[in-house]
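Design a sequence for this backbone.
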């Protein structure tokens, strides 16, 4: 279940005897690498305690809509924005009815109403309740709005009857959750991504670098894999774990990054240059540590090779995405880079002060291309990466359709 690695799953637990299964579901989601936030209705707490789910999820369980402490940190709006996927398991007949009616009378229903995240519902109820016209109409309404129905299964029920209405087992629900992130938008495509900073040596112990953490590039690699791509990741020095199914090449300097890109460029259809490559390097590298001396010191620099321009010069057919980190005139400077380097798309972000960018888990991007653009608002970099991959796939397919016609 590598597609659930670091995904933010909000697990809603409503009032059903099947709530005892939510404990196993939390464990299975975490085993798959997900970050799980549990939200319980009042009725759910009659079947399983918040303390149990808090222990298993390793996060505080939220239960009250009017919780002053929760609102000060992560209230219903914050949780709605936080989630990559909302899963209601078990979903009782009563809670399904509230969702269908758009109610926000408790914390869980308020989160579901306020969130743009996809919604999955795993029903659990008596077979007659499941078969009733009211429940079926409510389920149909939710599915028309884009919700995904997980189950129910058939079998012996807690009431002693046999039929449809059993909540799916934890492993089945986890498998369905993973499917949400396997989009297939870039199925079979070859994608090369650069990430992180470069380090340009001054002497054996010092170097010139920047504040890039590599998080955005690594998030893009994971998102591209979820979209079905074969991903090669060329990374500068970072302290990050390689995403599953990604071929990683480690480099230090801009020259090493350029060489690695050129060695792997021939088969690539999409290149996403998210690395923060040094523009300059020392003209001469000292073979021994430079000792501190009285007075000032000077360091002569020369330009490094332009990796983006090298890529775009080699093939017009390749789809190339650049990044621009700017402290001022974000759109103007990004459009200049878009034109100058003959890019298909550029992702620009403001850095410095309270803005996103380096050394942060969240970011916001301004995407620009010839004749258009769109803003991607502040979000966790993992979520932002998936949004960016969707836009890249859209523009890539549009370019290929134009060239084929």
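Sequence:
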């Amino acid at each position: 279940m590598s597609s659930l690695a670091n995904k933010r799953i909000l697990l809603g637990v409503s009032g059903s005897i099947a709530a005892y299964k939510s404990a196993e579901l939390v464990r299975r989601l975490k085993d798959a690498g997900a970050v799980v936030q549990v939200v319980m209705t009042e009725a759910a707490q009659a079947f399983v305690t918040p303390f149990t789910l808090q222990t298993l999820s390793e996060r505080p369980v939220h239960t009250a809509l009017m919780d002053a402490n929760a609102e000060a940190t992560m209230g219903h709006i914050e949780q709605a924005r936080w989630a990559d996927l909302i899963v209601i398991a078990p979903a009782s007949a009563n809670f399904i009815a509230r969702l269908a009616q758009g109610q926000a009378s408790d914390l869980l229903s308020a989160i579901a109403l306020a969130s743009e995240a996809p919604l999955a519902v795993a029903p659990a109820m008596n077979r007659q309740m499941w078969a009733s016209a009211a429940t079926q109409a409510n389920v149909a309404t939710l599915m028309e709005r884009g919700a995904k129905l997980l189950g129910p299964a058939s079998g012996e029920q807690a009431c002693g009857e046999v039929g449809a209405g059993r909540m799916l087992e934890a492993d089945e629900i986890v498998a369905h959750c993973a499917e949400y992130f396997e989009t297939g938008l870039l199925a079979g495509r070859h994608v090369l991504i650069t990430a992180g900073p470069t380090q340009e040596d001054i002497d054996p112990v010092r170097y010139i670098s920047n504040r890039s953490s590599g998080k955005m590039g690594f998030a893009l690699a994971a998102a591209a894999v979820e979209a079905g791509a074969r991903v090669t990741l060329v990374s500068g020095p970072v302290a990050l774990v390689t995403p599953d199914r990604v071929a990683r090449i480690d480099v230090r300097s801009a020259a090493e990054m350029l060489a690695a890109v050129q060695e792997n460029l021939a088969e690539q259809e999409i290149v996403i240059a998210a690395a923060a490559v040094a523009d300059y390097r020392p003209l001469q590298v000292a073979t021994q540590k430079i000792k501190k001396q009285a007075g000032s010191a000077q360091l002569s620099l020369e330009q490094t090779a332009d990796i983006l321009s090298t890529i775009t010069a080699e093939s017009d057919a390749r789809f190339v995405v650049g990044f621009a980190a700017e402290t001022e005139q974000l759109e103007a400077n990004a459009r200049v880079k878009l034109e100058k380097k003959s890019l298909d798309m550029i992702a620009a972000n403001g850095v410095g002060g309270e803005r996103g960018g380096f050394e942060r888990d969240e970011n916001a991007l301004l995407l620009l291309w010839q004749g258009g653009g769109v803003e991607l608002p502040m979000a966790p970099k993992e979520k932002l990466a998936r949004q960016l991959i969707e836009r890249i796939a859209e523009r890539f397919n549009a370019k290929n359709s134009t060239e084929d016609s």
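The mean pLDDT is 90.
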